[in-house]
Fold:
Amino acid sequence: MNRQITVFLMILLFPLTAHALVFGGSNLGFSGYPSHDCIKPTKPIKPYSFDSQWEVDSYNSEVDLYNSQLQQYLSCIDEYIENANNDIKRIKEKAQEAIDETSY
Structure:
């Protein structure tokens, strides 16, 4: 009985692993191709004037935080684009398989 379950599971999982030639992440989902979910940071607002060292330091801290968040945002966008390119490769691969299948 245990062997039958193992064989059954192997048969079920075979289509999921066969022909997976493109490596990397993917953006494909059940409801179509998704938009990115990267959060674009908001630039800090520069004060009209700096009346104290505390205001200068506070603004500089906000700029540092913005720069850090901007790098995270750009990395997120880069990953989204890389995944989209992987998906394009997968789609082209499947289309080529269909073409090859029709060749006699």
About this structure: The chain has a mean pLDDT of 84. The radius of gyration is 25 Å. The first helix runs from residue 2 to 17. The chain has one domain: 23-102.
